[in-house]
Write a sequence for this structure.
């Protein structure tokens, strides 16, 4: 991408907040329908989110999960492996988090760490990286043949926009927690990550488990496009629900249940 085209993507007019929120709400209603369909039919779905640091994975995942049940939509964001986990088969630490019937598991970074940060930062050997790219499509085929639906999204942020987001993290105390120890080295190694991405896509973008790339310079558009797309891939249907009637409060055994709270410790009403 040229410098001018990167600047152009940043200057592209974003959705107005009201328009974005209206569109997001409609998609979130559909996610609720998807949730009921998954629960009722015992479906198992895995959604993988990968991408450059600062690409907006966390915000996209939040947009997906903020209106649904965490018992159905589980988010998995594993820390660095322990010494014991480093001695296991590479995929061993991920498999226990795979969904049971009626669950959707979202991986905020996944086994593809080996194709990205581990490879670029030297946390794995060249042979381990090569072996991963060779065996990953086999593993994913095995997962899908076992009845799990696998969706893989790569969020792609431009050079200028990543720089802007990193700078915002440095300057804004509300965002500083997002700046990890690996973010700054990843910024310096932009082209190393690009080449690692290229190798990953070449080896693991298969017909059985394809990658879908989400341009994410415009965060709002990226979230809406991603949610709309994943909904289009899943053949869910709206599950009929029985009408719910709120029961009247019983008066038998009634008493002044607020008076007994007098003298208890209350949170000060400052606002």
């Amino acid at each position: 991408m040229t410098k001018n085209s990167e600047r152009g993507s940043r200057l592209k007019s974003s959705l107005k907040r009201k328009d974005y929120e209206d569109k997001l709400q409609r998609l979130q209603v559909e996610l609720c329908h998807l949730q009921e369909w998954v629960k009722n039919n015992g479906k198992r779905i895995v959604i993988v989110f990968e991408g450059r640091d600062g690409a907006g994975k966390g915000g996209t995942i939040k947009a997906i999960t903020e209106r649904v049940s965490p018992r159905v939509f589980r988010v998995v964001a594993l820390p660095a492996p322990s010494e014991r986990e480093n001695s296991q088969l590479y995929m061993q630490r991920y498999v226990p988090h795979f969904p049971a019937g009626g669950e959707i598991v979202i991986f905020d970074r996944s086994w593809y760490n080996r194709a990205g940060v581990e490879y670029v930062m030297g946390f794995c050997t060249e042979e381990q990286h090569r072996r991963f790219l060779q065996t990953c499509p086999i593993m994913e085929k095995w997962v899908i043949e076992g009845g799990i639906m696998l969706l893989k999204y790569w969020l792609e942020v431009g050079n200028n926009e990543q720089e802007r987001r990193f700078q915002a993290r440095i300057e804004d105390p509300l965002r500083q927690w997002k700046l990890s120890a690996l973010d700054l080295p990843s910024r310096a190694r932009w082209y190393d990550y690009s080449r690692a991405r290229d190798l990953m896509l070449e080896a693991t973008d298969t017909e059985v488990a394809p990658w879908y790339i989400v341009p994410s310079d415009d965060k709002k558009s990226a979230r809406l496009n991603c949610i709309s797309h994943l909904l289009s891939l899943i053949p869910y249907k709206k599950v009929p629900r029985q009408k719910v009637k709120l029961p009247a409060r019983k008066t038998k055994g009634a008493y002044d249940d607020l008076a007994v709270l007098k003298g208890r410790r209350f949170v000060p009403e400052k606002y």
The chain has a mean pLDDT of 92. The chain is about 45% helix and 10% strand.
